[in-house]
Amino acid sequence: MKPPQMLDYLDFDTSDDSEGLTSLDAMAYAKATQWPALTAEVTQLLAWCSDAFGAPGPLEDGHRWDLDLQLQSDAGDALALHWDALQRQLLAPQAAQQTALQLSLTLSGPDAFAQQLTEQFLGSND
Q: Within the chain, which residues score under 50 in pLDDT?
């Protein structure tokens, strides 16, 4: 097995439910100078998810994984943030005007999704 691709900004907490679904929650704070690196890290992660499991979407509609992305300015204002799965781009049009940003990311899917993501980016849970 190849070594995991370590993450520098995202630190995940994992929770499981009784229906075999896992949620991985992460938050990252970045100053304006760090935003390109954080964007690259999130893009790498979400591109891997999209390549391995298809486009994100509601699990109850048959998608194999889903995500929730949120972005806030340093002042706490909500900013637009969108993952374009087709173009493999993280779109945050207002980010360049900010001095610092807080990004929140939740990934959810069946246990197999979480296990593969963990092995790929976080190292094995063993």
A: 1, 126
